[in-house]
Specification:
By secondary structure, this protein is α/β, with parallel strands linked by helices. It folds into two domains: about 1-140 and about 310-345, Alpha-Beta Complex (Quinone Oxidoreductase, Chain A, domain 1), CATH 3.90.180; about 155-290, NAD(P)-binding Rossmann-like Domain (Rossmann fold, 3-Layer(aba) Sandwich). Helix content is about 30%, strand content about 30%. The chain is built from ten helices and 19 strands. The protein has helices spanning about 40-45, 95-100, 145-160, 175-190, 200-210, 225-230, 245-255, 275-280, 295-305, 325-330; strands at about 1-10, 10-15, 25-35, 50, 55, 65-70, 85, 90, 110, 125-130, 135, 170-175, 195-200, 215, 235-240, 255-265, 285-290, 315-320, 340-345. Strands 3, 6, 7, 10, 11, 18 and 19 form a seven-stranded mixed sheet that branches. The chain has a six-stranded parallel sheet with strand order 14-13-12-15-16-17, with helices on both faces. It has a two-stranded antiparallel sheet with strand order 1-2. Helix 3 packs across helix 4 and helix 3 (about 145-160) packs across helix 9. The longest helix is centred in the middle third of the chain and has 19 residues, at about 145-160. The N and C termini lie close together (about 10 Å).
């Protein structure tokens, strides 16, 4: 089978690799139809690391994926050959303290697709996964939608963690895929008046399509001033920081209402961000760090399949496996109005 290996920062090589051999009784082989380019993948591509997670070359990254079940182990009951499935890339151990507490997303022994030192990723034709990580796609969802379900589950989880209540207001700072899906997840609750901002004009427009009641271009508008003016100086109840940038975190603290919540979802390129402690303390803000998702995939599929959660316009570009470097360069450079690029193995 063909498989794309990251061989150095900014460099991929597509090679022939062995097809999966015998599989475990509770495993299945999936022929991948779509693999999304995630912002975390871009960090590995451009910098070779995310914090302490450092790529040892060659290595295959990628974790947002969907496809068709091609082979199943003898004990598999969750899926069958021919099923169209979305893949949950997280493989928790189930036995550590955190798993027993229902916090599988911070499992002490977690294995995650495309994460250095944990599990090889999905930029290849065939993928072996435990059956518990496979979820049937309803007929209303495409393989591209299946790719969007993994990041969407993070956003559904983030909204749940923020305890968004009826009548509250939100702001989403950074309208890449995670920001847009956070908007969609918040609006799916039917409860949020939403502000949004981004530096890229196409993403500002996309924010409106994904549910923002007001969307601002940071290059043209003082976003904090505009949101404070629109809320009578009060600020918003929940801010979702989806950019992973110092400026966005500063802005989040400025526009959060006293007693509000700041949900930190974006992954920064550098290991440390600064906190305006005076603002956070005087407003008694609750800061919530979001680590992937926790048991939200089925709920996300239910919302997306029913049309309550808008995911269908997220994918804007498609590439063959041999074009993977081109896909990553496009996403890393925010070019051509890209929201989500998908590689088709």
């Amino acid at each position: 089978m063909r498989q794309a290996f990251l061989t150095a920062p900014g460099r991929f090589e597509v090679r022939e690799a062995p097809e999966p051999g015998p599989i475990g009784p509770s495993e299945a082989v999936v022929r991948l139809e779509a693999v999304g380019v995630c912002g975390s993948d871009v960090h590995y591509f451009t910098e070779g690391r995310i914090g302490s997670q450092i790529v040892e070359y060659p290595f295959t990254i990628g974790h947002e994926c969907s496809g068709v079940v091609e082979r199943v182990g003898r004990a598999v009951t969750r899926v069958a050959v021919g099923d169209r499935v979305a893949v949950d890339p997280a493989m928790p151990c189930g036995g550590c303290e955190w798993c027993r507490k229902g916090r599988e997303n911070i499992c002490a022994n977690l294995r995650f697709l495309g994460c250095p030192g944990q599990a090889e990723g999905a930029y290849k034709e065939l993928l072996v996964m435990p059956e518990r990580c496979l979820f049937r796609l309803p007929e209303s969802l495409t393989f591209d939608d299946g790719v969007a379900l993994e990041p969407a589950a993070i956003c559904v989880y983030a909204v749940a963690q923020s305890r968004l209540a009826p009548g509250e207001t939100i702001a989403v700072l950074g309208c890449g895929p995670i920001g847009l899906l956070t908007l969609a997840a918040a609006k799916a609750s039917g409860r949020a008046h939403a502000f949004a901002s981004d530096l890229v004009p196409e993403r500002v427009e996309a924010a409106r399509a994904f549910g923002a009641d007001a969307a601002y271009n940071c290059n043209e508008t003082d976003v904090a001033a505009a949101i404070l003016e629109a809320t009578g100086g009060r600020g918003v109840d929940v801010v979702y920081e989806c950019a992973g940038e110092q400026d966005a975190l500063d802005q989040a603290l400025l526009i959060a209402a006293p007693g509000g919540r700041v949900s930190i979802i974006g992954i920064p390129s550098r290991p440390r961000l600064e906190l305006i402690a005076d603002l956070a303390r005087r407003k008694e803000l609750l800061l919530i760090n979001v680590r992937r998702q926790n048991r939200m995939v089925e709920r996300t599929i239910e919302l997306a399949g029913s049309g309550a959660l808008f995911v269908s316009d997220l994918v804007t570009h498609h590439f063959a496996l041999e074009q993977i470097a081109e896909a990553f360069e496009l996403v890393a450079g925010y070019r051509d109005g890209v929201l989500k690029a998908v590689v088709r193995p």
